[in-house]
Design goal:
Elements (H helix, E strand, L loop, with lengths): L8 H17 L1 H16 L11 H4 L6 H13 L4 E11 L8 H16 L1 E4 L4 E4 H4 L8 H12 L10 E4 L2 E4 L4 E6 L6 E15 L2 H16 L7 E7 H15 L1 H17 L10 H24 L9 H23 L7 H30 L5 H32 L9 H4 L10 H21 L2 H24 L6 H4 L5 H12 L4 E7 L8 H16 L12 H12 L15 H6 L10 E3 L1 H5 L6 E10 L5 H17 L6 E3 L3 H5 L8
Antiparallel strand pairs: 1-7, 1-8, 2-3, 4-5, 6-7, 9-11, 9-12, 10-11
Helix pairs in contact: 1-2, 1-13, 1-14, 2-11, 2-14, 10-11, 10-12, 11-12, 11-14, 12-13, 12-14, 13-14
Length: 667
């Protein structure tokens, strides 16, 4: 039976034969042309840039969390670019932080953070946290209030968990204090062993925020001031550095792989007749993937596509493909007639090897080409680089290596001239060890083929495959997706250690952010009741901590309105926007400013446009792993869909990673 592709083989062979004859006649022309192409392609490196945001690159572009995260970030990004810094503090001996030495250093550490300053080249002055945090300077107000009460030893004030009342103001403390001990009857906070501090930086100049973050990292890790504390810090920039480090730490291994392959190529290229050996040509052929790598990165970078750490694996792939092609070419070359002219030998080599290389390249292009249409950025980038690399490597090996063979072919021509006899070499004319190795090779594989064809071996292989497939199936069913930085970064990394400890600590309390994008007219009692109903739904959903963990402005503002005795015609209390600016200007209520987007002029005339959107948070507990989180996230999304008039979006920093556990077709 004739294969469908057989009809095209004569045309391919004719094309490659003509190409090979051209290469054999003008080898330098092809070498110079491809080196020039590589040089031109490398100009694309001027646009080279790298992206290492694992949350974005590993999440499907169609995932709902992308929209949800964008809404929350745009809400929080009120004065410029937003950066979130988290600091995890515990005692070095893992004990209580309420002991005098530990508590004293904890307070000092919090004060030192607020004193950190960086130089601003704009106004030519030093700026500190207060210049970078507005309107989120009070994110750790609960921590400050509790530590002041403890430091003052106010026995009249009992600190309750998760919400306590200090100086008449309700304070939600569960966002800051973890690994706690609580009196089950009174809910009084007795002890805590971990503190989590949140710092929101907002500024038009991201470089200033990065400088401040770097100063904080130095304070935590390099200052050595806090001998009783173990401090861990994480920021998006630190996580990005860890992701980038995956590539930079792996890249040097390319040189080791290249060296090993070069040695293997040299040894494998040796023949019984010394003049037929091709160690120099093999080394040059193994170096061709390096040129292909430079050209590939330059070409793709020229399009503006960002480089990602995963692309380093493409370079290993390129090396393997290139070395395979060298073996194919050498095998085809050795099958040619040495008595023929060089041009004819190169033509025959390219005719035979070109067809084989084409088949392998086409399969690579089909395999990686499918990934180009992936909606997951990291997979798409990997596929694009791999597709381009496969094509470039194919062209380079097809044109460059035959040109090298053409230039060195004359070394194989033996004659009996005096000059040839006097030619010296470090190798003998006959390499006996190659001959013995070939005999041993043939003997081993002859015995192996007899062994494989035996009946008992067939039965053994079938049994082995059944066991292997059963174990593989079981393992596949048990597999779960966990793409947190702690799973692929160096375990000794401080950022990875933060993530591991943070994952365990936050199980007791996490925060769900809900942005109400279209609150509507809150003076309308029906609309107000619908809003309260939606909030109650979030507060009573599975794993939710309840109403006592909810933080938002509305209830406090209604208490504020009672002071003004705002009533309707029937004497009932009514909602009005008029006093909202005064409420937010109150020193005790400033921490609500970052949760409301307000049009003050509309407020003064009691118009619904006063509040364009607002944010509230509520607590949930128990679940922290991404595969556990996703069902809960879907329930939150269902609540938002039930109240479409508010265009509510719920989000946690774990949403994007949780969406990674779901197949893309589910979105």
């Amino acid at each position: 039976m004739r294969l469908p592709t057989a009809r095209y083989e004569p045309y391919m062979q004719k094309f490659y034969e003509s190409l090979g004859r051209s290469i054999g006649s003008h080898p330098w022309l092809y070498i110079i042309a491809l080196l020039t192409f590589t040089l031109i392609s490398s100009a694309g490196l001027l646009r080279f840039h790298q992206i290492n945001n694992a949350r974005l690159t590993f999440t499907d572009s169609r995932a709902p969390s992308r929209y949800e995260g964008r809404v929350v970030e745009q809400f929080l990004r009120q004065n410029g670019t937003l950066s979130i810094v988290e600091v995890l503090v515990s005692a070095r001996d893992n004990g209580s932080l309420l002991r005098p030495d530990q508590f004293g250093q904890l307070q000092k550490f919090a004060r030192d953070i607020r004193k950190l300053t960086v130089w601003d080249d704009g106004p030519k002055r030093r700026i500190g946290f207060a210049d970078l945090c507005e309107p989120y300077c009070q994110k750790n107000a609960a921590f400050d209030a509790v530590t002041r009460v403890i430091d003052a030893n106010l026995s009249s004030v009992e600190i309750a968990y998760p919400t306590t009342e200090i100086l008449g103001e309700k304070v939600f403390i569960a966002n800051n204090f973890y690994r706690i001990r609580v009196d089950l009857e009174t809910k009084r906070l007795l002890d805590f062993r971990t503190v989590l501090l949140h710092y929101f930086l907002v500024h038009p100049d991201p470089s200033l925020m990065l400088k401040w973050e770097n100063e904080l990292v130095k304070l935590c890790y390099a200052s050595k001031r806090y001998n009783f504390l173990r401090v861990l810090v994480v920021t998006d920039s630190l996580v990005a550095k860890e992701v980038k480090k995956l590539g930079t730490d792996t890249a040097p291994l390319l040189s080791i792989a290249l060296a090993a392959l070069m040695v293997f190529l040299c040894v494998s290229s040796l023949r019984y007749h010394r003049e037929e050996s091709k160690p120099v040509e093999a080394v040059l052929g193994g170096a061709i993937p390096i040129l292909a790598s430079v050209a590939t990165i330059g070409i793709v970078s020229a399009t503006g596509l960002a480089f990602q750490s995963i692309v380093v694996s493409t370079l290993f792939l390129l090396l393997a493909i290139g070395v395979d092609d060298v073996f194919i070419m050498l095998a085809a070359w050795h099958r040619t007639d040495r008595r023929c002219r060089v041009e004819e030998r190169v033509a025959a080599t390219v005719r035979e090897a070109g067809c084989s290389m084409t088949v392998t390249t086409v399969t690579n292009l089909i395999s990686f080409g499918n990934g180009v249409f992936s909606s997951t950025p990291v997979l798409q980038t990997f596929a694009i680089y791999s597709t381009v690399a496969s094509a470039v490597c194919f062209v380079f090996q097809l044109l460059l290596f035959p040109a090298i063979l053409a230039l060195t072919a004359n070394r194989e021509i033996r004659d009996d001239t005096v000059a040839n006899k006097k030619r010296h070499s470090c190798l003998p004319d006959r390499l006996e060890f190659v001959k013995k190795g070939g005999i041993a090779h043939d003997d081993i594989f002859r015995r192996l083929s007899d062994w494989v064809c035996s009946t008992w071996m067939r039965v053994t292989v079938v049994l082995f495959l059944c066991i292997y497939w059963s174990i593989s199936l079981y393992g596949a069913l048990q597999a779960r997706t966990e793409l947190g930085i702690q799973h692929f970064a160096d375990k000794s990394s401080l950022t990875a250690q933060f993530k591991v400890e943070h994952e365990e600590v936050i199980k007791s309390m996490q925060t769900l952010a809900i942005v109400v994008q279209t609150p509507g007219d809150l003076r309308n009692s029906t609309n107000m009741e619908r809003l309260r109903s939606m909030i109650r739904a979030f507060e009573t959903e599975q794993y939710s901590y309840g109403a006592e963990s909810t933080f938002y402005w509305l209830e406090r503002y209604e208490e504020f309105l009672q002071f003004y005795e705002v009533t309707d015609e029937e004497g009932k209390e009514k909602f009005t926007y008029v006093y909202l600016p005064d409420f937010l200007a109150s020193p005790a209520k400033q921490h609500y400013r970052g949760t409301i987007k307000m049009n003050e002029s509309a407020c003064r005339v009691d118009h619904p446009d006063c509040i364009t959107s607002f944010l509230l948070t509520t607590g949930f507990t128990t679940v922290s792993h991404y595969n556990e989180m996703h069902p809960l996230i879907e329930k939150w999304r269902a609540i938002s869909r039930k109240y479409p008039e508010f265009a509510a979006v719920s989000y946690t920093e774990r949403h994007m990673f949780a969406d990674q556990v779901v197949p893309p077709e589910r979105f």
